[in-house]
Amino acid sequence: MSTDTPTTEATVAEAHADEAHDHPTDAKYVRIAILLAVITAAEVATYFVDIGPALIPTLMVMMVVKFFYVAAWFMHLKFDSVVFTRFFVTGLILATAVYCIALTASEFWSKG
Q1: In this structure, what is the dihedral angle of CA atoms 52, 55, 61, 67, given to the nearest 10 degrees?
Q2: CA atoms within 13 A of residue 80's CA, in its CB half-sphere
Q3: CB of 21 closer than 8 Å to CB of 79
Q4: What are the φ and ψ backbone dihedral angles of 70, each rounded to 5 degrees?
């Protein structure tokens, strides 16, 4: 027979409480949602406002910012291990590079 104390839900909850992070408030999530809505409105506005050759780089910057906020806050990446952050950043860089290569291959940059 083992002399270890049995694991109860209370001891498991205490162990997880030590590892837990301060969860953001609802107000923080609302502020982030408003920021994402503003960025989305700016993306839609680029359809109506002619900004010339800066269109694609502007849209790509907004895409990266939105990806960061969604991954960091709504997917709780901000509170996870740095390894997960590196995976997401690597994926973002790779996706952006592939997108730029595809645009370049189709001569999209030179079209107006």
Answers
A1: 160
A2: 13
A3: yes
A4: -65, -45
80 phi/psi in degrees, rounded to 5: -90, -175
Instruction: DSSP for the chain, please give it.
Output: ---SPPP-HHHHHHHHHHH---PPPHHHHHHHHHHHHHHHHHHHHHHHS--GGGHHHHHHHHHHHHHHHIIIIIT-GGGS-HHHHHHHHHHHHHHHHHHHHHHHHTT-TT--
Alpha-carbon gap, residue 62 to 109, rounded angstroms: 18
pLDDT tens digits, 20-76: 557 778 898 899 999 999 999 999 999 898 888 888 889 889 988 898 888 777 777
Alpha-carbon gap, residue 56 to 1, rounded angstroms: 69
Write down the residue that tokens 């960061």 correspond to.
68
